[in-house]
Amino acid sequence: MMSAEFGLAEVEREVAGTRFAGRVKHFAVVGSTNALALEAAAAGGARWGVWVADEQTAGRGRGGHEWHSVAGDGLYVSALVAPRVLLKDAAKIPLATGLAAQAAIRETTGLEVDIRWPNDLMFGNRKCGGILVESVSDGAAEDRLRYAVIGVGINVNHAAFPAELKGVATSLYRESERHYPREPLLAALLVHLDRELEELERADNELLLRFSTASSWVTGKRVTVEEGGGYTGFTRGLDSQGFLQVEEDTGVIRTVLSGGVRSARKE
Asked: Global pTM?
């Protein structure tokens, strides 16, 4: 159901110069904003749009994990985008989104959030946000991206978390003891995301460098990796497509393809 409590007009005013202008829809409660965006894209016609909800009842994170959604406390948003890029460059969209989210949080709260490759927003080892990107190829040109749905969840004003999340989750409020309105954060996120996608369309060769600079996880971080049977090592930068390189304790360099990177203590 639609809600009048969210300041949609304020958001629309701030995104007027972007490709999201006039395309932001707000709901009080939905199952999943990503599902709404995917449905709109599959129905044909829509290639740019934004769905934001006060609460999700079936929100998803990367790897099929559920996202803890408290009504009105978080920013739960999905953007349908269709940048003119090759499908192989779709792997860079989560990185571009991470940079956009980091910039939006800095701009609206003054807080400096870290990015855990490829899609988590972190304060230390506690997560305050996540990104989930679902990409679809162009049927007429399989090597090109048709569209992508970018889901972003940010814990904004959460004061507490369930027992199972207390040690791993945080929020902008818990990091600063200040409450923040969601509208300026959403508007800033969309403005920065539109700019990042424009840079990606221009084959921005600086994206990977900028992400590597913005994230403490890309180089020299001791991590455990879930895929490939699981292993431990140090991060050694990104490859040309934006995938993380990890040097195992044996000295072998491995490429991480699907996330699941966690901090590991030095032995």
From this structure: 0.92
